[in-house]
Amino acid sequence: MSLSAALPRPTPTLAIALLSVAAFASAANMRIIDPLLVQLSAGFGVTVGEASIAATAFLFANGVFVLVHGPFGDRYGKMPVVAIACIGAALCCVLSALSASLGMLTLARFLTGVASSAIIPLAIAWVGDNVSYDKRQAMLARFLTGQTLGLMTGAALGGAIGDWLGWRSVFWVLAAIYVVAGSALVGVMRARPDLAQPAERAEGSMIGQMIRVLRRSWALTVIVVVALEGGVFWGAFTFVGADLHQRFGLGFAAIGLAVAAFGAGGFMYVMVAHHLVRLLGERGLCLWGGAGLGLAFAGMALAPSAEVEFAAIVVSGVSFYMFHNTLQVHGTQMAPEARGAGMALFALCLFLGQAIGVPVAAPIVDRWGAPPVFWAAAIFLPLLAFWFAHAITRRGA
After folding, report:
1. What is the pLDDT of residues 356-389, one digit of tens each?
2. CB neighbourhood size of 76 (10 A)
3. How many CB atoms lie within 10 A of CB 311?
4. Positive or negative: CA dihedral 114, 119, 124, 125
5. Which tens digits make up the pLDDT trace of 256-292?
6. Residue 8 pLDDT > 50, yes or no?
7. pLDDT at 201
8. How far apart are CA 255 and CA 245, in angstroms?
9. In sequence order, what are the residues at sequence separation of 6 or more whose Cβ sits closer than 8 angstroms to the Cβ of residue 93?
10. Which residue has the higher pLDDT, 390 or 151?
11. How many CB atoms sit inside 10 A of residue 143's CB?
12. Among 354, 352, 184, 328, which residue's Cα sits nearest to residue 266?
């Protein structure tokens, strides 16, 4: 073996930064159409409720088609699939911008969701393939910068650009971001062909790969925990805006800032993640993240003013990413030979948890308001985080 082959590869920070840009576009795409619904209803002569089918089509495709992309990335290389997905999503955004009817826009948004769903799970899996485990959590936190900023600013950017230049311009901007990310990733792969190769050749069919992942007890544990986390957290947090409006009379612009406050909390975690990982370790991040989530949701339930609830929302952002980032790291390690399939299952279960948690919480909020749902999250999420921390310790032993 040559000396160069024996040396560890340098951390591919440029590639991770470009994957983070792609993740920004993918995350922003999830919420970017929400503030455009009024314009769409006027432009196509439909109700706002009818126009919302364009948002639903994207979210459905984004949640389901990740199952296809995960094993595909394992077989043919995760970064090439992400780059192709970026170009495909850009073309679909162009189709959205050119749509002449709501039906055409809905189809374009569905196809955008199909393409875009590959980006974040496969990017995380690629980090798992190319970054050693001891550095992985801090590096994933850096990658999360793009995703967090996308979630934080997606709706705001959609509203601002749509109001300034019209709703079609929003999709032109997204297309440009996707093209920049995809083209730059192609350039990186040409300069470093080793980054485009599958880590290990996964054997068997797509379904077979996923079944093998699910047969591993630790993988099943991680997947169940992320589904419960997604269901309980988003089942409660989805109604923060409604609570601020009902209890404190906040307008819709201020409610938009509440969503941004959560993203700001996540961004605060990203900025100090490398220090927290070193100081607390995985178990400590789970314990402190769970405790923070309990305090945050209790603060939302008891908040005497909107300012207090805003502060609690920021705490929830920091705490959620402390816990969720740890889950992501273990998600990358569920099946090292088939990380794409593993992260596809991880993303699907997070999506299914959200899809179940919100309708379960909705009738409770309708009858008694949001505080009972906040209290349920304040109790359950710390217990879930503490249990997972114990499971990490037991597995290590």
Report:
1. 887 888 888 888 888 999 999 999 999 999 999 9
2. 14
3. 17
4. positive
5. 677 778 888 888 888 888 888 889 988 999 999 999 9
6. no
7. 56
8. 8
9. 108, 112, 171, 172, 174, 175, 178
10. 390
11. 23
12. 328
What's the distance, CA 277 to chain centroid?
20
> Does the domain made of 9-201 have the CATH classification 1.20.1250.20?
yes
Closest CA to 138 of 329, 268, 336: 329
| Identical fold, 9-201 and 202-397 | yes
CATH numeric code, 202-397: 1.20.1250.20
Using alpha carbons only, how large is the chain's radius of gyration in Å?
Answer: 21
Residue with tokens 């409610």: 255
- Retrieve residue 233's tokens: 């957290």
Which residues are within 8 A (CB) of 322 and not within 5 positions of it... i.e. 6 or more apart? 269, 276, 285, 286, 288, 289, 292
Alpha-carbon distances, residue 377 vs 11, 236, 293 (angstroms):
38, 7, 8
In terms of Cα–Cα distance, which of 372, 362, 228, 250 is closest to 308? 250
Confidence band, pLDDT 50/70/90 cuts, at residue 5: very low
Provide the residue type at 48 as one letter: V
- In the chain, what are the domain boundaries? 9-201, 202-397
pLDDT in tens, 319-329: 999 999 899 88
- DSSP 8-state symbol, 287: H
Tell me how far apart the alpha carbons of residues 247 and 250 are, in angstroms, rounded to a whole number. Answer: 8
Query: Does residue 79 contact residue 191 with C-beta atoms inside 8 Å?
Result: no
Strands (DSSP E) found in 103-203: none
Distance from the Cα of residue 169 to its chain's centroid: 24
